[in-house]
Amino acid sequence: MPGSPHILIVDDHREIRELVSRALSKEGFRVSAAPDGRAMRKTLADSRIDLVLLDLMLPGEDGLSLCRALRAESAVPIIILTAKGEEVDRVIGLEMGADDYLPKPFGSRELIARIKAVLRRSREHGLHGRPERRARQYRFDRWSLDTASRALVRQDGVAVPLSTGEYDLLIAFVERPQRVLNRDQLLDLARGRSSAGLDRSIDTQVSRLRKKLELDPGDPKLIKTVWGGGYVFTPAVTAQ
After folding, report:
1. What CATH number should be reported for the domain holding residue 96?
2. CA distance readout (Å), 143 to 185, 220, 222, 224
3. pTM of the entire structure?
């Protein structure tokens, strides 16, 4: 359900992904799953993830490398999953920035307790799982968006005010240009954990953004509708 923590399971065993997904869904978590690092990165780019369950033994790029890379660019909490007896790898994983570890096989009650504990600690420390190196300014078409002042400025110097919901939605778009994002993804990306900015539908917020950004809101060029898919932000975006 919207607003509940979103957990990403990264494990190459389909049975484990399905079992863990069912257990977490029963507890009210939203769940996504990925079999490898490539799929993990795509999910992280397309959705707001609150915690990653990361198996160490993965095809291609292993879990330790993924943990190190993920921690270098994000504060999202990580729980590593290890096979029994991999004590050295568990230690290395924690040194690379993982928040906790859980050896296999594990019970669903212990897993859920670990997840809740890590999420609670992350909230207490103000970690929101977003990249810490967000650009201060985005430029696209005839606009610039400054994240420090939350100012949207046209190329002729005119500043256009944005509501909280409009700003959060625009950030979701400019960080993912030329990618089709469905309504659930946009809601997830723009709302965050505690934001109440999007208390209306995504479609309403898109309509409002179009009125502010587009030369002709009736024939939008920047935010295009993908029928049956959602929306795509079409212009090239530069970030500073």
Report:
1. 3.40.50.2300
2. 24, 15, 11, 17
3. 0.63
| Residue 13 shares a structural domain with residue 114 | yes
Q: Identify the domain containing residue 54 by its residue range.
A: 6-124
Phi/psi at 160 (nearest 5 deg)?
A: -115, 120
pLDDT on residue 23: 95
* Same-domain check for residues 29 and 120: yes
* Position 132 in a domain: no
pLDDT in tens, 30-54: 999 999 999 999 999 888 899 999 9
Number of domains in the chain: 2
**Of 73, 68, 76, 27, residue with least CA distance to 48:** 76
Report the DSSP pairing between strands 237-239 and 137-140: antiparallel
153 in the same domain as 87:
no
Which positions of the chain have pLDDT values less than 70? 1-3, 84-90, 93, 124-135, 191-200
Please report the pLDDT score of residue 48 as a whole number: 86
Alpha-carbon gap, residue 230 to 235, rounded angstroms: 16
Sheet architecture: strand order including 180-181: 180-181, 230-233, 223-226
- Within this chain, do residues 29 and 53 fall inside the same structural domain, yes or no? yes
Cα→Cα distances 141→42, 138, 144, 155, 177, Å: 26, 10, 8, 9, 12
